[in-house]
Design goal:
This protein has two domains: 256 residues, GAF domain (Beta-Lactamase), CATH 3.30.450; 135 residues, Histidine kinase-like ATPase, C-terminal domain (Heat Shock Protein 90), CATH 3.30.565. It has 13 helices and eleven strands.
Length: 401
C-alpha cells in the first residue's frame, strides 16, 4: 500500500500511518464520548444480528450500526468475491448507507481493491484524507483469521471528528461482521444442501457440536465487549481466540454437509442441475454456454453428485465472471470406472506458472473445488495458457468414498 500512498499523495491526497494519532488530532477535533456508549452500541448490534438469517441482512445491520454510532455521513461494507482468484472486491455484495451525492463513489470506489490490499496486508485499519474533497475515510478489515471477507469503511467530512471510540467500535464491528457473515453463509449453504431424511441426524450433531461452539463464541463476544474500555490488547486476543473457534466450527459444519446434495439434484439429477446452472450463469451475458454428456448416465452417491455439481458451478461462475470468455463448455463423461467432468473456456487464461498457486493459494473458488474433490477421493487438474483459455478436469471414481 506504500505505492498507493505515493500515488494518492501525488493526486492531492494525504495518507498517514494509522498509528500516528497526533496529526489526526490536529485536523480532527474529538469531543468526549463515554465508553458506556461503545458497550451499549455493541450490545445493540449483538441483539439485532442474532435474528439475521442471510448475508444481506447481516450487511444491512452492520452498516446501519456503524453509521448510527459514528455519525459519519457515509458507511460502506463490501465483500471479497468468493469465486475470484486473488483479492477482488465484489460490488454486487456492496451495501452503502448515506446520500448518493455526498462523498461520491468515484472517489473511494475506484480504490476499493487497493484499500482492501492495505488493510489485509497487516490487519490494521487504514486512514486516508483527501484534502481536495475535504473528507476522510477509515477502513477496517472484515476477515476470519487469514481469510479476507471484506472491508468496512466510514467516510466523513474533515470538520467532523474521528473519535477513539469510533475507531474501536469499527474495528470490533469488523471482526463481529466477519463472524456473522461466515455463520450466515454456512447457514445458507446448510439450508440449500440439507435433505429431509438427514435433518434429524444433522440437528443432533449440530446441537452436540456446532451449537455448543457458537454458544461459546457468543459468550466470548460478551467478554470482549467488556474488555474494550479496560484492556484493548486483551480484547483483541480474545477476538483472535474466537476466530479460531469459528474456523473450527465452520470446518465441522462443512463436514456435515459434504455428504448432502443440493435440492436441485434431487429434482433434476446431476446432468439436469448442471445444464440448468449453465443456462442461469450465462443468461444476460455475452458468454455462450453449452453442456455435453457422453456415456451411459449412472447413479452416484448423493455426496458425489453434490461434489461434481459444486465444482461445475464454481468453475462456470469463474469463467463467466472473470475470464472474458465468449464460450464455456461443460462435458460430463460417464464410464465404468467413474465420471470425468471438464469445464473449458476460451477466455484470458492464467499467467504461466501460476496454475498451482491459484489451486492451492488464497483464491476461494479453485481452492474449494480442490478440497471438495479431495474429500470425495477424486482429483482436480487445471490447465491454462494465456490468451487461449482454461480447462478444469475433475475426475471422480465411482464408489471412491
Amino acid at each position: 500500500m506504500r505505492d498507493r500512498a505515493g500515488r494518492l499523495a501525488a493526486s492531492g491526497h494525504t495518507v498517514w500511518p494509522f498509528g500516528r494519532r497526533a496529526r489526526k488530532r490536529d485536523l480532527l477535533p474529538k469531543p468526549p464520548v463515554g465508553q458506556l456508549a461503545l458497550i451499549t452500541a455493541l450490545d445493540s448490534v449483538s441483539l439485532s444480528i442474532s435474528s439475521a438469517s442471510t448475508v444481506q441482512e447481516v450487511l444491512a445491520i452492520i452498516v446501519e450500526a456503524a453509521k448510527r454510532f459514528t455519525g459519519t455521513e457515509k458507511v460502506v461494507v463490501c465483500l471479497v468475491d468468493e469465486f475470484a482468484d486473488g483479492l477482488v472486491m465484489d460490488e454486487t455484495t456492496m451495501v452503502v448507507r448515506g446520500p448518493r451525492s455526498t462523498h461520491a463513489q468515484d472517489w473511494w470506489g475506484q480504490h476499493l481493491s487497493e484499500i482492501a490490499d492495505d488493510v489485509f496486508a497487516d490487519g490494521r485499519p487504514f486512514f486516508d484524507v483527501d484534502r481536495d474533497r475535504g473528507a476522510w475515510l477509515l477502513a477496517v478489515p472484515v476477515r476470519v483469521q487469514d481469510q479476507p471477507l471484506g472491508v468496512l469503511i466510514a467516510i466523513n467530512a474533515v470538520t467532523h471528528g474521528l473519535l477513539p471510540e469510533h475507531t474501536a467500535f469499527l474495528s470490533i464491528l469488523g471482526a463481529f461482521a466477519a463472524v456473522s457473515i461466515a455463520n450466515a453463509r454456512l447457514a445458507e449453504e446448510a439450508r440449500y444442501a440439507m435433505l429431509a431424511g438427514e435433518r434429524e441426524r444433522i440437528a443432533r450433531e449440530m446441537h452436540d457440536g456446532i451449537s455448543q461452539s457458537l454458544f461459546s463464541i457468543s459468550l466470548g463476544m460478551e467478554l470482549a465487549k467488556k474488555q474494550v474500555p479496560k484492556d484493548s490488547v486483551q480484547a483483541m486476543r480474545t477476538l483472535d481466540d474466537l476466530e479460531s473457534q469459528l474456523t473450527a466450527s465452520a470446518a465441522e459444519l462443512r463436514r456435515l454437509i459434504y455428504d448432502l446434495r443440493p435440492v436441485k439434484l434431487r429434482e433434476l439429477g446431476l446432468v439436469g442441475s448442471v445444464q440448468t446452472w449453465v443456462r442461469e450463469a450465462t443468461r444476460g451475458s455475452t458468454v455462450h454456454g453449452r453442456t455435453e454428456v457422453t456415456g451411459e448416465v449412472r447413479s452416484l452417491a448423493p455426496a458425489q453428485e453434490a461434489c461434481l455439481y459444486r465444482v461445475a458451478k464454481e468453475a462456470v461462475s469463474n469463467a463467466v465472471r472473470h475470464s472474458d470468455a465468449t464460450t464455456v463448455k461443460v462435458r460430463i463423461e460417464y464410464s465404468s470406472g467413474g465420471v470425468l467432468l471438464t469445464v473449458s473456456d476460451d477466455g484470458n487464461g492464467f499467467v504461466p506458472g501460476e496454475t498451482r498457486s491459484r489451486l492451492e493459494g488464497t483464491g476461494a473458488g479453485l481452492r474449494n473445488m480442490n478440497e471438495r474433490m479431495v474429500a470425495e477421493g477424486g482429483r482436480l487438474e487445471v490447465y491454462s495458457t494465456p490468451g487461449t483459455g482454461t480447462l478444469i478436469r475433475a475426475t471422480l471414481p465411482i464408489g471412491a468414498t
